[in-house]
Design a protein that fits this description.
It is built from 11 helices and 12 strands. By secondary structure, the chain is of the alpha+beta class. The protein folds into 3 domains: about 80 residues; about 80 residues, Winged helix-like DNA-binding domain superfamily/Winged helix DNA-binding domain (Arc Repressor Mutant, subunit A, Orthogonal Bundle); about 80 residues, no CATH class. Helix 4 packs across helix 6. The chain starts with 15 loop residues before the first strand and ends in a 15-residue tail after the last helix.
């Protein structure tokens, strides 16, 4: 990424208004950005629209480049060069103020979803309905698939989010446990069902924190004990193992849902039994 760093910067904010927007070839905008103190035709031709009024408001020219998102906000003081200028990374935000407002609303919604989810979840996942989101932030996404997808993309760009599903009028978010205070303590004390770490599962390509990783032998043992076992895929999906042959034939990782594993452990303690070892014939073969 690139940005502008000013030597001995002066961040005194000034009121301004965009009087006119001109779009010039991308190469000419690049030249203007590199040499703002030179005379430029686009500035000279529009010098009459620029100036500072008696209230100190800067009346500016917005110069954008073809195919570029950025631009230059200029008040030339009647000259042909950028006497006063401000680089604008997203010029469309000035041309269309509604986009800037929507961006702030979406960013606030992302912050609200993540703040609630990471603070309240105890298992790594949290669901926020469209209705709840509107109550939290005032942003309505019901019946607006573009906003739903945009919000989903923004959520997935955050380091806290491991996975996301949007369906049935809700955002179902899976978080990395390191960002969830209610999960960290429990996960540190929690015994995983096999000698495979959650980090290994994430590296394999499966991110949902509600699933514990298994090797093949452990998967066979749990399945034959009646626990639902899943075949995990490197693309982040899973499906239930329906037979012994599916487990032995799967060249990848296996999993058991956290709640199912906890329930199984509870049954073990109450019955004082151990997980059965692999016994041929207990699972159907396909």
């Amino acid at each position: 990424m690139k940005t502008v760093f000013e030597h001995k910067p002066d961040f005194a904010f000034r009121e301004f208004t965009v009087e006119k927007t001109v779009t010039i070839p991308a190469g000419r905008l690049e030249e203007m950005l590199c040499h703002p103190m030179r005379c430029h035709e686009a500035i000279l031709e529009n010098a009459g629209v620029m100036g500072v009024d008696g209230n100190g408001v800067y009346h500016c020219l917005l110069v954008t480049g073809e195919g570029r998102a950025d631009g230059l906000l200029v008040e030339s003081g009647g000259s042909g060069y950028a006497r006063y200028a401000s680089y604008v990374p997203e010029a469309t935000a000035l041309r269309y103020p509604s986009l800037s407002r929507l961006n702030r609303e979406l960013a606030a919604a992302v912050d609200a979803i993540i703040a609630e989810g990471t603070s309240l979840t105890t298992e790594g996942n949290w669901t926020v309905s469209f209705e709840d989101l509107e109550g939290m932030t005032g942003l309505c996404v019901e019946g607006r698939p573009f906003l739903q997808e945009t919000l989903g993309d923004m959520l997935c760009s955050r380091p806290e989010v491991a996975d996301l599903t949007i369906e049935d009028g809700r955002f179902d978010v899976a978080y990395h446990l390191d960002f969830c205070p209610g999960c960290r303590k429990g996960s540190a004390q929690e015994e995983l069902p096999d000698g495979i770490s959650m980090e290994e599962m994430h590296g394999y390509g499966y991110a949902w924190e509600g699933m514990f990783p298994l090797g093949r032998e452990r998967a066979l043992g749990l399945a034959e004990a009646g626990v639902e076992v899943f075949l995990l895929m490197p693309d982040g999906t899973e499906r239930t193992a329906e037979s012994r042959d599916e487990i032995t034939g799967h060249d990848g990782m296996f999993g058991v849902e956290r709640q199912a594993w906890q329930a199984y452990q509870g049954n073990l303690k109450s019955c004082q039994t151990n997980v059965p070892v692999e016994t041929p014939g207990m699972l159907p073969s396909m």
